[in-house]
Amino acid sequence: MIKENMANFTTISGFLLMGFSSKPELEILFATLFLVLYIVALVGNVLNITTTSVDHSLSSPMYFFLKHLSLLDLCYISVTVPRSICNSFMHSGYISLWECILQCFAFTLCGCAEMAMLTVMSYDLYVAICLPLRYEVIMDGSTCVHGVLAVWASGSLAGVMHTAATFSIHFCGANIIHQFFCDVPQLLKLSCSNEYVGELGVSGFLSLVAFMCFISIGVTYIHIFSTVLRIPSAEGRARAFSTCLPHLSVVILFVSTSVFDFLKPHSESPTVSDFLLTVFYTVLPPTLNPIIYSLRNKAMKAALRKIFERRKDFLFF
C-alpha cells in the first residue's frame, strides 16, 4: 500500500488551478477584488487580535476566544486567497503536488477548527448568561487554554484525516482542478476509479461531527434565549442580546455559507457562479467576522477608539 501511494506521488508533479475566467482582463478584475477583500480581512482580524491583546479591559474569556477566532480567520483566508491572487496576476495556475497537499491540510484544519471554536464560544456565552454566579469558577484560565488547545488539536486531526484520505487515491487525466484552490471535491473528480470511497467516509464522519457542533450551538442558544427572556428589566435583556448577537451572526454566516456550498449541485464543468458560491464560505466569513464583532460590540468599539486615539496622539507628539 505504501509503495502504491509513493508511486502515486512520484507520477504526479502538480495540478493546474483554473481561474475565474479565461479572459486576462476579467482575471485581473477578479484578482483585484480578491486583493481588496483580503486586505479588509487582514486589517480587521489583525486589529481584533491587537485590540484584545493590548487592552486590559478585554481580558475576559470571551475576548480570549475572539482573539483566537480572528487568528483562525486570518489563517483560513490566507490559505487560499493570496495564492489565487498571485496566480491571476502571473497568469499561471500551476500548483505543485506538495503545495496542494499542504493547502488541503491547512484549509481543512482552519475550517474544522473554526467550527469547534464557535462551539466553545457558544458554551462560554451559555455560562456567562445562564450561570453568571459560577462563571469565574467554570471559565477560569485553565479551562480557556484547554478549550483553545482542543480546538487546534481537533482541527489538526481533521486536516490529517482529510488530507491522507484524499491523497491516498490515484489521479489520472488532465490534472486540472476547476477551482481557485485545491478543493477536495474537485480532486476526487480526478480519481482513476472509485478509490475515493475511503475519503467519502472521512468526509461523512467530519460532516457528522460538524453537525453535532451545530446542534450543540443550537441547544445552547435555546437555553440562552430562555434565560434572557426571563430577565425582568428591558435594559438587562438588551444587554444580554447585544452580547449574543455578534457570535450568533458569525455562526449563521459561517454555517449557512458552508451548507449552501455543500448542498448545491456540482456540475461537471463549473461556471463563474460556481466559483462565486465557493467564495461565500472561503472568503466572506473571515472578512466579515471582525466587522461584525467590531460594529456590534460596544467594548470592542471603545477599545478600538482608544487605540486610534493613542496612535493619533503619538503621531502629533
Topology diagram in text:
Layout lengths: L1 H10 L2 E4 L6 H31 L6 H30 L3 E3 H34 L4 H4 L2 H26 L9 E2 L6 H5 L8 H33 L4 H30 L8 H11 L1 H13 L1 H19 L1
Parallel strand pairs: 1-3
Antiparallel strand pairs: 1-2
Helix pairs in contact: 2-3, 2-11, 2-12, 3-4, 3-11, 4-6, 4-8, 4-9, 6-8, 8-9, 9-10, 9-11, 11-12
Subcellular location: Cell membrane
Membrane topology: Multi-pass membrane protein
Keywords: Cell membrane, G-protein coupled receptor, Membrane, Olfaction, Receptor, Sensory transduction, Transducer, Transmembrane, Transmembrane helix
What would you say this structure looks like, in words?
78% of the residues lie in helices and 3% in strands. The chain has helices at residues 2-11, 24-54, 61-90, 97-130, 135-138, 141-166, 184-188, 197-229, 234-263, 272-282, 284-296, 298-316, and strands at 14-17, 94-96, 176-177. It starts with a helix and ends with a helix. The longest helix is centred in the middle third of the chain and has 34 residues, at 97-130. The protein contains 12 helices and 3 strands. It has a single domain (16-316), classed as Up-down Bundle (Rhopdopsin 7-helix transmembrane proteins), CATH 1.20.1070. It is an all-alpha fold.
